Structures are given as C-alpha cells and as structure tokens.
Amino acid sequence: MKKYILLPAMMVAAMLSTTAVKAQEDVNPLLKYVNKENDLKASIGGRMFADVAYYHTEWTPMKSGAAITDARIHASLTYGKLFIYADFGFGNGEFSQKNLFAQYTFKESLKGIHLVKAGYYNEPSSMSMMTSSYNYHFISRPSVSQALDPGRSLGATYKFFNKHFFADQGIFSQLKYNEQEEGYQGFSLSGRWLWKPINDNNITLQFGTGLRYQRINGGEVYQDGVYKTNMHVAANMQTYVDETTKFLSCDLPWAKDAFTISPEFLFKSDRVFARGEFIWKKVWKDRDDQTLFESQLGGQQSWTNVEGWRSGNKLRPTIMNGGYVEFGYLLCGKAYTYDDEYGLLKGMGDKGGLELVARYSCTNLTDITDGDIFLIGNHKFYPNGKVVDYPYSSSIDGGTMHSVTLGLNYSFNQYIKIMGEYQYANLSNVYFPDDENFHQLQLRVMFAF
C-alpha cells in the first residue's frame, strides 16, 4: 500500500523539479538534446528586445528613439538532479555577463523540495527583481526596485518550497570579480520568505517579505590610508531607450552597513492579478574620524579637538523608501499561471493572449534634515537655514518620483510578444528644479527561441 502512496508523491515532486528547470528559461527552447539513457538534457536558446520610445519633458530633454535594449544567448544542461545554466547579454551593443550558476535538487518529499544553488544570479530578496524581464508584464521594472533592491551577485543559496511555503536565503559577495580599489570585499545576506494560504490551479494568494543585510568593506584610499567606502543608488525613468539615471540618483559616502526590508503580496486568479511591494532601506555610515582629524592639524583653519571636527563634519544614517502596486486583466488567452519554485507570477505567453495592465510606483531617494536649505548655484545643502562653511549638511536628495503606467500587451505565441505603454511621472529633485512632469510612450517587440 505504501508504494501506491509514494509513487504519486514522487511523480509530483519530479514534475516540480522539471518546472524548476523550465523556470530559468523564458520559453521552451526550440533547440534541445535529450539522452534518456544517461538522464541528460541540453538546450540552447536566446531572446531579443527591440524598444521604441517617445519622451516629453519640461526642461531637461530625454533622447527619444529606438534601441535593441536586450539580446541574449543562453545554454542549459540537466544531468540527473544537477542543473547548469549560463546566460550572456549583448544588449545596447555591449557584452555583459548575466546568469551563470549550478543548481542541485538534493531532496524531494511529500513535504516539499530542497535545492542548493551557487554562482552568479539575482539575490533572493525582491519579487520584482527575481522576475525575468521576459516574464514581466511591464516594459521596465519599477524604479524603486532598480534603486533599492539588489541585482545579480556571486553567491550561494538554499531553497525550500512546497504548495504553501517558500524560503530562499543565501550569502553573496559585494563584487563578483573582487574589483574594489582597496580593502577587502564586502558581503550581503539575502532572503525571501513567503506564505501562500491559498494556492491551487485557479487562485494564488501569497504574503511575504524580503530581508537583506549588506556590509560594504572595499573602497578607495581617501587620505592618509583611510579607506572611503561609497554606495551609489540610482534608477532610470522606467525606460531603456534612454537609460539616464541623473533624475534619480545619489551617492552615500562612508556607507558601511545597509539593511533592506521589502514586504510583498500577490493575488492571482485565472483572469486577474494584483501584486505589490514596499521597500525600506537604511544605510549606516562609518569613517576613521581620528585619522582624518589628525591629518588636518596644523592647517590654516584646523580643528583643535576631534569632537569639534566631528561636529563640523556630521555623519548620520540615510533612509530611502518606496513601493509599487501592479494590476493586470487578461482579456483573451489562457489563464494566468504561477511558479511555485520562484514564488512568482509567470508571464503571458499563449497564442492570442491580450492583457491590460496598470501600475503606480513611488521612489523616494530623498533624506533632507529639517531646516536645511539648498543653493542651486553651489549645488550644496546648508544646515539650519544658514549659508556657512561648517558644519557640513548631511542631507541627501536623489529625487522623489511618483509614476502611473498603463499598458496593453499581446502575445502572438510563447516566442513573440508585443508590449505598449504610456507613463506619466512626477519628479521632485532640487538638482533639477525645472523638471517636474514627464510623459513617455513606449513600444517593445520581444522574440525568444
């Protein structure tokens, strides 16, 4: 009797394992090799995105036009429970390394599936960044995810998932090639955990959160052997024909530790989806005040003690945040589908699929101390409403943007899709006082094989 119970269970686990392999590839590859005798499978595929965009701005122009925004070649190899995947990009005329990892399914049971993974891939702390751009329902990810969530890193993770629970966590290096100028490499701890109270063939409802701690160690020599670390935070205007990040960007000198939390939700039925995330990030800073104080002694206007120097060169944490909500309605085509292994909504890819989507997003990279003023001529903040040399202001304004996006997507089949969007964005940034309202129209044609 026991074998009749275990056999269906192992078949389900095997199906989930097969889905896990397919989830890494945008479509079922056209070029495949299967050796059943040795339990070996191999495939080669690729994709290309061609975008056209028109931008209307009030002052600072953006470059309307067309571009090949993404072009990739990928290969995969499955040998028993081992899965190896490599993905390289050629978008915008430049070669770039995308995904390169090995994954092993080491335990399958009635309770769920266990995986280990190592290589170069997205850190598991964000629903938006974990979703493949081919499976995305918008031309661009929300700017808040681009700015505050991590992308690909070199690391290793352990994952467990079943019908109702999902846990993916691991450790990653700060830079994939250890290319910091000085110091030793930093690291991050990332994870994403989900609970799905409802998850069947028709409806999925999930709640969860991502957490990430980042330690920044490498940097550059500032003076007298002091290492100066920096965190650059930036996002484009949710478009890739002109990928400028000047409207939403800032540098956080002396950044040392960063913590990010990103609660999320997802609802999916056959014809409707709704999902969203809120992202909150705090960055703590640290520097060698004693050495920097001693290096300025004897100068024309030197500080006489370290406490005075520190009060004139204030350093405080920076907080940034934002979020988005997205909605979709499938007008034609088969039902929306869900990926248990990644805890994600899959893309629309059936023949004749037509969907209407909408998104609101907010990106806040501004942390200004009460009472500080900004002089555009000097490009500096001054504390307490006074234009003085000291103390330095610790205010940051990387820009705040609210945007609304409406889109209509059509899939000829799983290999060819077309996406169209209109977006209105409202910007507030002291460095661009004359730029407030942005309008853009975008069209994307997508091929995959």
Outline the structure in words.
It comes from Butyricimonas virosa. This is Porin. Residues 1-23 form the signal peptide. InterPro entries: Porin_dom_sf (IPR023614), Porin_O/P (IPR010870). The protein is mainly beta and 449 residues long. A hairpin with a 4-residue loop joins strand 1 (31-35) and strand 2. It is globular and about 80 Å long. It has one domain: Porin (Beta Barrel). The strands form 5 sheets. The protein has a 16-stranded antiparallel β-barrel with strand order 2-3-4-5-6-7-8-9-10-15-16-17-20-23-24-25. 10% of the residues lie in helices and 54% in strands.
Give a quick precis of the structure.
The protein has 449 residues and is mainly β. The chain has helices spanning 2-23, 127-130, 143-148, 289-295, 306-312, and strands spanning 31-35, 40-56, 65-79, 82-89, 96-109, 112-122, 152-161, 165-173, 187-199, 204-215, 220-223, 226-228, 230-234, 249-253, 255-268, 272-285, 318-332, 338-339, 344-345, 353-367, 373-375, 380-382, 396-413, 416-428, 437-448. It contains five helices and 25 strands.
Helices and strands, with pairings:
Blueprint (H helix, E strand, L loop, with lengths): L1 H22 L7 E5 L4 E17 L8 E15 L2 E8 L6 E14 L2 E11 L4 H4 L12 H6 L3 E10 L3 E9 L13 E13 L4 E12 L4 E4 L2 E3 L1 E5 L14 E5 L1 E14 L3 E14 L3 H7 L10 H7 L5 E15 L5 E2 L4 E2 L7 E15 L5 E3 L4 E3 L13 E18 L2 E13 L8 E12 L1
Antiparallel strand pairs: 1-2, 2-3, 2-25, 3-4, 4-5, 5-6, 6-7, 7-8, 8-9, 9-10, 10-15, 11-12, 13-14, 15-16, 16-17, 17-20, 18-19, 20-23, 21-22, 23-24, 24-25
